[in-house]
User: Fold this.
Amino acid sequence: SRTANVLLYNDNPQARQVLLDILDLTNNSAARMAICRALIQSRSSKVPISNVEDFIEPLIGVFNTENDDEARLAAEATLIFRYDKIGRLLENLVIDTEKPVKTRINAIGALYRPDMNAVIMLIRLVDDPDEQVAAKAGNTLRSLGIPVGTNHSEREKIITDLLSKGIDTFLRELLINQEAQMHSIRNE
Assistant:
């Protein structure tokens, strides 16, 4: 993990390429997870990573894994990118029915973020033809405190309501929901 951190901030293009190549390896889970952890830690660093966009596609490639911990760390690492930078690639992956179901489910983890467009994609995924994908999307919405609705038309209404509220109201309500969930967990 320390090595990944050192290489992450190294300006040498070869050091960067080592990290990108490792993210593409499917047989070295420990190294991939170390790079994801280094990317996650970079969120709290005051030193920016140069050309951080180089990591977008390799990180999304990590979702094609059977290892749940690896997928979870990759999803968390994607939080270093704003949704407008990574959203299109994530959305294309989660709706691609040609991709393995496990890959699509892993990518749904990256939609767990305080972003209205990510939430709208999750709501749409509840109607996915694959039950596992639909269930994962529904569970992710519930964990964000967002209503899932019982049918397609209710979900379309939820999307319309979100869009009409605007981003500020959406974020405020999301924060209130999160605080209520934390309060409820403390009481239990």
